[in-house]
Amino acid sequence: MDFGKLIPRNYKAELRKAVRGKGIYLYDDEDREYIDGCCGALISSLGHGNEEVAKAVYDQLLTLEFAHPSRWKNDATLEAAEEVASIAPGDLKNVWFVSGGSEAIESALKLARQYFVERDGKGSGKTTFIARWNSYHGSTIGTMGLAGSMARRREFTPLFQESPKIPPHYCYRCPYDMTCPSCELKCATALEDEIQRIGPERVIAFVAEPVVGSTVGALNPPEGYWQRIREICTKYDVLLIADEVMTGIGRTGKAFCVDHWDVVPEIICSAKAMASGYSPAGGILVSQKLVDVLKGGSGAFQHGHTYNANPASAAAITATIRIMKRDGLFENAMKRGEQLMAGLKDMMDLPIVGDVRGLGLMRGIEIVANKDTKEPFPPSIKAAALVTSCCMDQGLVIYPGTGMINGVAGDQFLIAPPLIVTEAQIDDILKKLRAGLEEACVRLKP
Ligand SMILES: Cc1ncc(COP(=O)(O)O)c(C=O)c1O
């Protein structure tokens, strides 16, 4: 395929050309219509071609496109911080803006470390982050050490520091071979064991996605999991960092996913839907406790990027959140998410649909070769890619992922349409998805 001078994600990929978008739809260069059933990677939550957000960014670009954050403050970012704070849980009313998810996680890691250095002195022994297998926190050298898609990080392991990891709450394939609730949340108490093993005086924070996204396919936690994690972190003076890069800004039916359980972490990382794809944007929401130590100490966060506190991205963030609040899109995500889930459960009659899961408009399907034994397809068959291609032929875009069982085997995909989706459009998504899956069943038959 000819990419001209552009270095693409994959020179060998056969990509259709996207030329325009409107609402939940994308159009290719033959004017074929596709439902954006995954918002790219859970980004375009307001859908495509939103004139209000586009105008807000345009107006901001004409007024002030850039003024370096080390020498200037600007109204656009002050306003965006107010807007983010208006939907933030607990005391997470302090916001640091960046350009995307990996930068948000990097910022959170550095701020968390700096907090302990400023609080306890330069000799603070707190140097370790704990994360989970089957998580994705970004593609930078720093974030890859936390976890990530094995296929994407394997070749780079000598370059980064590997964080200790606990197993995820993968109830469909419980790492402890137990069932909930009789397991008494062994996967959550694993955090306590890990903190004890390392020594609480060495642990800075636990980092996790509230609903695990791209690496497992919308893995929602069992009842009580996040509350238990919060208790453990508090008990051992370990910070809790929620990676809400995918789950944040209404995706799961609440402003932030931790709101479902009334859990307040010390830091929430957000990106993707924060500006709904209209400008590169991300941020961290930080608790007063951390900000007070910083303000009373050095006063300066030892971190920064050129596009930190960028006015155009800030305008996109403010407009996005205002529209979401005004149009009741968090509530819509909850309602339409339940409708979507009911339809996905009906698809359990298909021989390759092993599990359906998720929360709000962040749903996932795990594909298996044998439903009774949960045996996956051999990785060489590329089952997730085949299902994606079958759905694409139906005019539905989904987000595939692999390797969640042992880093190699396992196929799943995310289905996460824009939060503006209507009842009739969900019905249409379900119709196209069933047709795509039925075709995949035929092509995957042994
Ligand atoms: C949960 C999670 N964290 C972090 C990231 C990294 O975000 P970005 O690709 O914007 O750097 C992603 C991206 O998919 C993500 O899903």
From TrEMBL:
CDD domains: OAT_like. Keywords: Aminotransferase, Pyridoxal phosphate, Transferase. It holds the Pfam family Aminotran_3. Gene3D superfamilies: Aspartate Aminotransferase, domain 1, Type I PLP-dependent aspartate aminotransferase-like (Major domain). The keyword Ubl conjugation does not apply. Signal peptide: none annotated. GO terms for molecular function: pyridoxal phosphate binding; transaminase activity. NCBIfam families: PRK07483.1. Belongs to the class-III pyridoxal-phosphate-dependent aminotransferase family. This is Adenosylmethionine-8-amino-7-oxononanoate aminotransferase. The lineage of its organism: Bacteria, Thermotogati, Synergistota, Synergistia, Synergistales.
